[in-house]
């Protein structure tokens, strides 16, 4: 996809709103809430404005408004009521819908108001686990179903990363604990999906560990110098897209060759590509984790 999507099918609306297509059709027919256009083959298509309206309706509906009452609210008033709900009642499902609405409309103000409302009730860590994680999972599904485009994804993930940066910065004045491990966090070459690694960095600092955050697309050769400064570093990475299934074992062999001479450098891996690795076949210094929670639990063992 090379452009932002502006026309949506009814399945797109179902995916984004969580309201079944059958129910959307009933609301449309009985209450005239949406006015789709029709293709030459009589298939419904919906504009960006229709999607925005449905997401607003969904927020009101999930907050106890009857659909018959929503149908009576002037369109100019719906946006106002939605914003009031988001600010005053930051329930998880409402917040996720509000963030999706902010994404679809590239609405930084709505994102910030929703986040501020959540922050009044929860810690950043709770917001990430309870709201951002489910939202990011939904974004993956929306991307796979061709419901959202690259601009939408980049917009919302950039805003989430900003919140991780800000929250991490508040922790960085803390001294590492006496039992602190040293973690070098990096993404392999051509890997740019950074949110998981950023949040892992936050969690490690929160637990008193020392972290060296290197970020995206780092060649293995660039990690060699770290072993000159630290005796027993843990290299932590996310394999979301790269190395690919076919390149994984070669990458791990290269790691062993470049970073496991003398004292073996430990490599901890998270991300989608770990599905192609079998723990029992890995060297002792390489471990795979299927979630950040699992990785954090290993630190306590």
The beta-strand count equals: 8
Per DSSP, the total helix count is 13
Task: Give the name of the CATH architecture of the largest domain.
Answer: Orthogonal Bundle
Largest sheet: 5 strands, parallel
**Would you state the CATH class of the largest domain?**
Mainly Alpha
What's the N-to-C terminus distance? 45 Å
> What is the ordering of alpha helices and beta strands?
EHHEEHHHHHHHEHEHEHEEH
Quaternary state of this entry equals single chain
- Average per-residue pLDDT, rounded, comes to 85
Give the tally of structural domains. Answer: 2
Strand order of the largest sheet: 5-4-6-7-8
Q: What's the alpha carbon Rg, rounded to whole Å? A: 23 Å
By secondary-structure content and strand pairing, the structural class works out as alpha/beta
CATH topology of the largest domain: Multidrug-efflux Transporter Regulator, Chain: A, Domain 2
């Amino acid at each position: 996809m090379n452009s932002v999507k502006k026309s949506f099918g009814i399945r797109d609306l179902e995916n984004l709103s969580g309201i079944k297509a059958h129910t959307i059709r009933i609301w449309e027919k009985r209450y005239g809430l949406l006015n789709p256009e029709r293709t030459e083959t009589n298939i419904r298509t919906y504009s960006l404005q229709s999607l925005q309206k449905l997401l607003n309706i969904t927020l009101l509906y999930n907050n106890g408004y009857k659909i018959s009452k929503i149908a009576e609210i002037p369109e100019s008033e719906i946006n106002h009521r939605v914003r009031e709900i988001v600010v005053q009642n930051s329930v998880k499902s409402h917040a996720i819908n509000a963030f999706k609405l902010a994404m679809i409309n590239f609405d930084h103000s709505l994102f910030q108001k929703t986040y501020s409302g959540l922050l009044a009730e929860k810690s950043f860590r709770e917001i990430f686990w309870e709201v951002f994680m489910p939202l990011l999972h939904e974004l993956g599904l929306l991307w796979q179903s061709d419901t959202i485009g690259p601009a939408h994804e980049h917009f919302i993930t950039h805003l989430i990363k900003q919140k991780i940066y800000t929250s991490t910065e508040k922790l960085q004045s803390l001294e590492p604990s006496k039992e602190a491990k040293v973690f070098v966090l990096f993404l392999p070459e051509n890997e740019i999906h950074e949110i998981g690694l950023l949040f892992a960095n936050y969690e490690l600092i929160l637990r008193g560990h020392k972290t060296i955050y290197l970020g995206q697309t780092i060649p293995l050769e660039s990690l060699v110098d770290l072993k000159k400064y630290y005796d027993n570093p843990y290299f932590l990475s996310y394999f979301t897209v790269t190395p690919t299934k076919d390149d994984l074992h070669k990458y791990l062999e290269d790691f062993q060759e470049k970073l496991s001479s003398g004292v073996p450098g430990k490599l901890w891996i998270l991300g989608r590509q770990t599905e192609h690795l079998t723990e029992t076949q890995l060297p002792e210094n390489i471990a795979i984790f299927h979630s950040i929670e699992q990785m954090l639990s290993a630190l306590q063992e």
